What we know:
Chain A is α+β, with helices and mostly antiparallel strands.
Amino acid sequence: xxxxxxxxxxxxxxxxxxxxxxxxxxxxxxxxxxxxxxxxxxxxxxxxxxxxxxxxxxxxxxxxxxxxxxxxxxxxxxxxxxxxxxxxxxxxxxxxxxxxxxxxxxxxxxxxxxxxxxxxxxxxxxxxxxxxxxxxxxxxxxxxxxxxxxxxxxxxxxxxxxxxxxxxxxxxxxxxxxxxxxxxxxxxxxxxxxxxxxxxxxxxxxxxxxxxxxxxxxxxxxxxxxxxxxxxxxxxxxxxxxxxxxxxxxxxxxxxxxxxxxxxxxxxxxxxxxxxxxxxxxxxxxxxxxxxxxxxxxxxxxxxxxxxxxxxxxxxxxxxxxxxxxxxxxxxxxxxxxxxxxxxxxxxxxxxxxxxxxxxxxxxxxxxxxxxxxxxxxxxxxxxxxxxxxxxxxxxxxxxxxxxxxxxxxxxxxxxxxxxxxxxxxxxxxxxxxxxxxxxxxxxxxxxxxxxxxxxxxxxxxxxxxxxxxxxxxxxxxxxxxxxxxxxxxxxxxxxxxxxxxxxxxxxxxxxxxxxxxxxxxxxxxxxxxxxxxxxxxxxxxxxxxxxxxxxxxxxxxxxxxxxxxxxxxxxxxxxxxxxxxxxxxxxxxxxxxxxxxxxxxxxxxxxxxxxxxxxxxxxxxxxxxxxxxxxxxxxxxxxxxxxxxxxxxxxxxxxxxxxxxxxxxxxxxxxxxxxxxxxxxxxxxxxxxxxxxxxxxxxxxxxxxxxxxxxxxxxxxxxxxxxxxxxxxx
Amino acid sequence: xxxxxxxxxxxxxxxxxxxxxxxxxxxxxxxxxxxxxxxxxxxxxxxxxxxxxxxxxxxxxxxxxxxxxxxxxxxxxxxxxxxxxxxxxxxxxxxxxxxxxxxxxxxxxxxxxxxxxxxxxxxxxxxxxxxxxxxxxxxxxxxxxxxxxxxxxx
Lengths: 731, 154
């Protein structure tokens, strides 16, 4: 198996006397059997490829290789396939694909299955159109043979194949069994966009009903026979280890089964969450903090600021920016501070692992990095990847956190399951549950960053040089993604949005320091753009002010070579009534309007924010006008939903988001001290989609990074104050 | 032995169940009613919202011992009032959910609001719904769907 140390279970374990799962309630109610997600495969189903299955009951099941974590992937992916298939939307179901790099890899990521970087729709576009068109062609061929008519004389609409000449019809379900024996055509013709019936229209979400009546199954809801719930006492500081522990306090807590040491802490297994939590909290752990990190956020940021005084690894260099700035009529400088951010999805991290008798490792998880997790677990257990079976369930949000190259919570659960198996308890499903506090303090944060920007303007207010230096931890370093993402010491995830500044400046220099720290970091909805959009878009605004130009006019002049940026900028400005005076606030209130434009993941977003600043310097975000160009909008309503949600997520970070460390201890723990936006703070949002015939790009992330700089620019317009430290506070 | 009425069915809770067990875990772990969600455990996110005697309550911070003998508890699984039906229909019509994890709590809070006030103002919606966090920020649709349901109820 492996060489990770597991303490002798018999010495350390604490077995509770009595108190089996059945003990608890004497019930006069019907306990509903747990209904698992995936539907059973029917014998006569037609499965022309890995992405669609048509049953004799006339259901069309689309297999999603991507996680549904809220972004609408199940609906969008099914829409693409169902359109080429000419299925009726009402007959379409969606199920999650198993982890399988050979069939379900993300086409943008090579041989890896995973969901991220807003790629689900973009990488699947051609693949699912072909999958749908292939299935359609085989159904048509089946009907043509059955009726002895030419294929060209048949039409397909709403899941029914028709022959107008003889008025014959057959549903997909009626054709399914025979279609299965058709040869798979080598090539198929795809629709012209004008013939789309679902794409670009409104296909209702496939998961709205189950998510409105409580029946949608998340990992947290999974119940398997004999399953135990595991909670873990984690060290208070990154890098600390268990020195010893005393489980005496666990005595007498009903339902507790085992206490055991694992590399990441002390795990407690119980029949239910509450028992596990009480026991976990009762275990006294002595931590070995010899190699623990004891730094603080303020010291860290000071060190970042100091590092910014020296040149870093070059991410972009065109012309001689330093010389251009030295010779400029006017120089503008600004520096920015961004804290660590937790993803804080509503469903705290969890997963279920069961080790079967034949060493099959079965996993249930809201898997975002399916085959990354599969490989990590296969390596840990010393088995082939195909022995690790991953069942992907709905994730109650993720925002990047469940796509961890380190597979942190999965390996933690694996350690517990393996310890049980070694103690003779195979086939026991272990559900690892992190409390909100565990989730908030576990690291894998959006890295903290320091940015220093400097630009020169000539006498006419034109930008002659631009320098941008970033200091912050690399996400990709030390992971499987390093070779692809880190080039010449520059993690592209650190500088995206900065190194590809769209503005036409004759000389630009972007460089990067990537300090190594023991606080683990990870991609967080919009990744590098979550900080680079802020610094670049507020700094451009400062330059516009210095040049005495209107912020929209100033940007427009610099975007001639970037028509898609320009189009969303102009659309947002027009729809927001840019240039027209804002309605005045009440007495003592100041109002302002700000704009920002940013491309991320090949989607282009501009937003105009209207803000009201009150006498006491508190402020309300009244309205956000958002323009987005994501190529063809597969599901326009979902594009709107993702812009709304992305704006809300971005505002949470802009107003409140900060994970801070003091003496190495994370100071936040739950939503009371790591707050998020609530309904009373949510602005009115209007979303405008640029019509496009370009292939679709993602919408899960690109709405997020634009709102904070637009808000900060609006606050400047209202107050004359530039805010350069996140979260935003008007003193 | 505590007796509760959960979704109109009598539930006799064994004295083996510790009195400090929150209602949330009674529902989820003992009764397999998993529609009510765990989000924070300290009554700040609202994902666990259920009704006790028709009033929205955070189940995660409601110990068994604090619940009145014979109390009527309603969870998302048993929310069959006309207000709940209207809310769920509006939720589907406007495609409110994204990840969906908080939505049981949203639906329970929104249906309770409509039962109390058939024509809620924006301020009423803020007051009733601010306690229910949604990290996907489905708030604009929650607001619109409450108004839609209000209209549908006539």
